Amino acid sequence: MAVHGRYGKPCPACGAPIARIAYADNETNYCAHCR
Description:
Blueprint: E1 18-23, E2 26-31
Antiparallel strand pairs: 1-2
């Protein structure tokens, strides 16, 4: 939950940009480096 709503901002753990997956009306934000 540390990256919820932080799309495009730096990851609090590693600093990599937060990515987003969108499908229909749902979206998930995640760090591609940490995940």
